[in-house]
Design goal:
Length: about 180
């Protein structure tokens, strides 16, 4: 089950965080209300047959799917890829990830520009809205298998921060101020 918490803005290592105090955890509803990030809990063992993922895909129009394996053995140019994933950026489309195996962290910015860390494990599916600044890294196991979904043809292009002049960013900030629905 996903864990979500506020984290320090002073990250020394992309995978580890030193806390003097325990983190402030958020519920998935609080995560959605403060960022627009959506969360679904699926069964990583039965998702192909139980119909839950198929319904989400149909309801949201996700017609493209692929799978990524992030590990030193499976991802070409592993170290540089992880560095690029951890560089703060946004996309013009939603970023949809369903974790099939392993674990990792998505970090997103809230309306006050504070980092929120989202730990994802097998069965967790998150939808990161277009226009939000975010980044990704693995935990110390250095391994995750995730399904990626898109509406239409996939767009893989990240726009590194600052990208505040982009219409998608302005639209995200408008939704943030009006509230996500």
């Amino acid at each position: 089950m996903v864990r979500v918490w506020y984290m320090s803005n002073d990250i020394i290592d992309q995978r580890l965080e030193n806390h003097l105090d325990p983190p402030t955890f958020l519920t998935t509803d609080e995560l959605f209300n403060s960022t627009g990030v959506e969360f679904f809990l699926l069964n990583a063992k039965t998702y192909e047959a139980d119909g839950v993922l198929a319904k989400i895909r149909k309801d949201r129009g996700y017609n493209y799917e692929d799978q990524i394996v992030c590990s030193k053995e499976c991802l070409a140019d592993y170290d540089n890829k992880l560095k690029s994933f951890f560089t703060e950026h946004l996309h013009t489309d939603e970023e949809i990830r369903f974790v099939v195996d392993g674990r990792g962290y998505f970090d997103v910015r809230d309306g006050s520009d504070r980092w929120i860390r989202i730990e994802v494990v097998a069965g967790d599916m998150i939808v990161i809205p277009s226009g939000i600044y975010h980044r990704f890294t693995l935990d110390s196991s250095n391994y995750i298998v995730a399904k990626r979904y898109f509406v239409g043809e996939p767009v893989w292009l990240p726009y590194n921060r600052p990208s505040d002049e982009m219409d998608v960013r302005k639209d995200y900030l408008r939704k943030l101020s009006e509230g996500f629905k």
